[in-house]
Amino acid sequence: MNQRSRGTARRAPTLAPLEGEGQGEGDPLKMKKRSEKEHSEREEDRLLIRFAADREQSFDRRKALTHEQVCAHLKRKLSVRPIDK
User: Fold this and answer.
1) DSSP conformation class of 2
2) Are 21 and 27 in contact (CB under 8 A)?
3) At 8, phi and psi to the nearest 5?
4) How confident is the model over 60-84, as pLDDT tens digits?
């Protein structure tokens, strides 16, 4: 019972039809958004697990680079080269 005389704010008319849905369960829009987020996170976890398993199977320690090798390669690749005139 929102009354302007008491200084309470009214809800936007576009949300009014949804207010009655899911009473006692919280805001249905928030619940839907939370459900979609949880689904997205589960899907992301599933894909990351598959990606990690594929990487683990294809990893060959003999071909792996050391930290120093990677940094040296990046330094050479990112070094500033003089501009040819």
Assistant:
1) -
2) no
3) -85, 150
4) 999 999 999 999 988 887 876 666 6
Q: What is the dihedral of CA 67, 68, 72, 73, to 10 degrees?
A: -40
Q: How far apart are CA 29 and CA 34, in angstroms?
A: 9
Element housing 38 (H / E) = helix 28-58
Tell me if 50 sits within 8 A of 58, measured CB to CB. Answer: no
28: left (phi > 0), else alpha (psi -120 to 50), else beta?
Answer: alpha
Query: Strands (DSSP E) along the chain, which ranges?
Result: none
Rounded Cα–Cα distance for residues 30 and 21 (Å)? 12
Q: Are 22 and 28 in contact (CB under 8 A)?
A: yes
User: Residue 24: is its pLDDT beyond 50?
Assistant: yes
What's the rounded Cα separation, in Å, for the pair 71 and 79?
12
First CA to last CA across the chain, in angstroms? Answer: 78
Amino acid at residue number 66: T
